[in-house]
Specification:
alpha/beta; TIM Barrel; eight-stranded parallel barrel
Length: about 270
């Protein structure tokens, strides 16, 4: 941990900019509840994303589309109660900002006022720039998201790598510049070629966060349930599992069941 992040009592969008300028990588993980956020924040993570991936890992949906604004606010409120240092960014869910900048502003303000979050994140480029601009005009920090945008999965039809072709890569770079000019403080790039992500990161003055975008970005983000090995079915190339909690937790439950069945639990010291 370098001097920039180490000296920050509370991470802010300005801290992230200083980290990029100093060449310090930015760490980012998702959290959706108080207990998980407490652990991640205490470990020293720079940014916590209350992602609409809660739709998948918390609610069991196939996509991120079903999660509602009220549900995102609930998750964000739970996370905020736990956090003492990290910057907390909240995804605006599908249907809460696309095609209607007034609705986008209303959604962003609800998240900020009702949860106490520090910023919001939107997926897309030129298509949603009016919404981005209107939210920024209210003083709400905005993070962008380009490349694979899961809220548009039915448009793409696949979770494969984006921007491999020249035209799509050119549009991504153009959208990245447009988002920066409009005023976003940072940009997530998901599942795009590493060379393109590096080029974008060098072109922009704002921090970039990659997921499946190589090591040339200014930081990295993963879904915490994937990193901890709580999920088992998800095996993308970019994912590194740092623990195998699924197996550990399952074994603990099996042990508990065995002890209950055999009357070993509770013993005399575990009762009143």
């Amino acid at each position: 941990m370098s001097a920039v992040s180490k000296d920050a009592k509370r991470m802010t969008v300005h801290t992230l900019k200083r980290m990029k300028d100093a060449g310090e990588k930015i760490s980012m993980l998702t959290a959706y509840d108080y207990s998980m956020a407490k652990i991640i924040d205490a470990a020293g993570i720079d940014v916590i994303l209350v992602g609409d991936s809660a739709s998948n890992v918390m609610a069991g949906h196939e996509t991120t589309l079903p999660i509602t604004l009220d549900q995102m606010i609930y998750h964000a409120t739970s996370v905020i109660r736990a956090v003492e240092r990290s910057l907390v960014v909240v995804d605006l869910p599908f249907g809460s900002y696309q095609g209607n900048s007034e609705l986008a502003l209303e959604s962003a303000i609800r998240i900020m006022k009702e949860s106490g979050a520090h910023a919001v994140k939107l997926e897309g480029g030129s298509e949603i720039i009016e919404s981005v601009s209107r939210i920024l005009s209210a003083g709400v920090p905005v993070m962008g998201h380009l490349g694979l945008t899961p809220q548009s999965i039915y448009k793409f039809g696949t979770y494969t790598v984006r921007a491999k072709k020249e035209a799509e890569a050119a549009k991504l770079l153009e959208d990245a510049k447009l988002l920066e000019e409009t005023g976003v403080f940072g940009l997530v790039m998901e599942k795009i070629p590493a060379q393109l992500a590096t080029e974008v990161s060098k072109t922009l003055s704002i921090p970039t966060i990659g997921i499946g975008a190589g090591n040339g970005t200014d930081g990295q983000v993963l879904v915490s349930h994937d990193l901890f090995g709580i999920t088992k079915e998800f095996h993308p190339r970019f994912l590194r599992r740092y623990a195998t909690l699924y197996d550990i937790m399952k074994e603990a439950v099996e042990h508990y069941i065995k002890d209950v069945k055999s009357t070993d639990f509770p013993n005399e010291k575990e009762q009143y």
